[in-house]
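Is this the right way to post structure tokens for a design question? Let me know if I should format differently. Anyway, here goes:
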């Protein structure tokens, strides 16, 4: 079944070995992703990941691939310079038969492929706190290794991606348009975001006035975007590089905690189960600061707790905006999936807000102990 959908596409790439089968991977909310199983001559495994790039989200897929190739080349060089083996630690793009890194099919869909990272897993929920610390270390290391990469060489693959203030305006515009007639029941939700309008713009304003620097950042730091080694429990590779572009370290930090330190799934319908786990918060923060503690400015460090609020609020608005626009951006499993997601993020945000002082205290403690 899966094979039929993609069999013509598979032929376009220079995959090595014997094709065994394919399965669809469902953890992403934007692109369509397949794992392709291959055996090598000697019976070993050499799997691949095939992805159809969502061109509703990424209007210029060539620019996405430009960024990914440039960034992975830089990461590979940095690792070699540090005497590390980059194999399995950096994404490797697979060329097509014509030597490009993307294939456009007859229907105008764009595809690209990577080598699969073996002996590692990407988890959707934090199972062991030390894995989350490792994730923090990996995302921090990622930023550190790219700290000498020229941000101006990267395209904005999704312009204004974490411009939280603009996300608010987009939300307001969607409410005004009420395209699919879903707004009537959303009075409380709308008030919720208006109440937070100023606070959620703080980071954007600080970036604009130069108090927070732009860096090369990942911008989509869900915990399932780090591969953890099955045996050692170490984070081996940061994946999903589509949104790597100029951004703030705070986006990566805040979004990772939003997702990974929540006590429930991102779309948990029972909001009473959702809160911020301060232990997990501590784990990630410790890992992250072990890599970028010296790189970050005082202002960035001061804004770490605010970044969690901001990223949670931003995504809550994005989910609600998509609900109001009729589910055009995120993949949904039911008609109210985006509304459930928005409610879950709103609940999480309230809890994050209530823990502001505790988070600052933990960060002070971690910094003092360095
Ligand atoms: C999308 O596809 P995935 O799961 O990696 C989204 C993120 C959201 C996330 C929420 C390009 O990421 O910004 O935080 O869903 N990516 C894009 O689950 O919009
Ligand atoms: Mg992803």
């Amino acid at each position: 079944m899966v094979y039929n959908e993609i069999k013509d596409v598979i032929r376009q790439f220079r995959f090595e070995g014997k094709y065994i089968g394919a399965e669809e991977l469902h953890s992403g909310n934007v692109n369509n992703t397949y794992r392709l199983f291959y055996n090598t001559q000697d019976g070993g495994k050499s799997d691949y990941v095939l992805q159809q790039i969502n061109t509703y989200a990424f209007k210029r897929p060539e620019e996405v691939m430009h960024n990914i190739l440039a960034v992975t080349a830089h990461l590979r060089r940095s690792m070699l310079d540090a005497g590390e083996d980059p194999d399995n630690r950096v994404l490797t793009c697979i060329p097509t038969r014509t030597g490009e890194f993307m294939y456009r099919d007859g229907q105008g869909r764009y595809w690209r492929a990577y080598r699969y990272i073996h002996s590692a897993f990407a988890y959707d929920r934090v199972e062991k706190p030390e894995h989350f610390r490792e994730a923090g270390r990996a995302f921090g290391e990622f930023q550190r290794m790219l700290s000498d990469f020229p941000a101006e060489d990267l395209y904005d693959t999704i312009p204004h991606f974490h411009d939280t203030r603009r996300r608010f305006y987009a939300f307001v515009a969607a409410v005004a348009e009420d395209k699919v007639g879903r707004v009537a029941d959303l009075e409380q939700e709308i008030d919720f975001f208006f109440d937070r309008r100023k606070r959620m713009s703080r980071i954007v304003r600080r970036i604009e006035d130069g108090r927070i620097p732009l860096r090369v950042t990942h911008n989509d730091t869900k915990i399932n975007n780090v591969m953890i080694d099955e045996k050692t429990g170490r984070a081996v590779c940061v994946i999903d590089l589509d949104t790597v572009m100029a951004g703030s370290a705070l986006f990566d930090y805040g979004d990772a905690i939003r997702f990974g330190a929540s006590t429930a799934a991102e779309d948990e319908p029972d909001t009473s189960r959702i809160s911020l786990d301060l232990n997990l918060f501590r784990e990630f923060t410790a890992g992250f600061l072990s890599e970028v503690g010296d790189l970050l400015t005082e202002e960035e460090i001061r804004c770490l707790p605010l970044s969690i609020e901001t990223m949670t609020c931003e995504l809550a608005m994005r989910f609600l905006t998509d609900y109001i626009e009729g589910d055009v951006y995120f993949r949904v499993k039911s008609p109210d999936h985006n509304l459930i997601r928005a409610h879950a993020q709103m609940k999480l945000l309230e809890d994050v807000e209530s823990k502001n002082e505790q988070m600052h205290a933990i960060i002070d403690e971690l910094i003092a102990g360095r």
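Format looks fine. Someone answered above. Worth noting: Residues 28-30, 57, 220, 222, 240, 242-243, 266, 315 surround GN1 (ligand 1) (CB under 6 Å). The radius of gyration is 21 Å.
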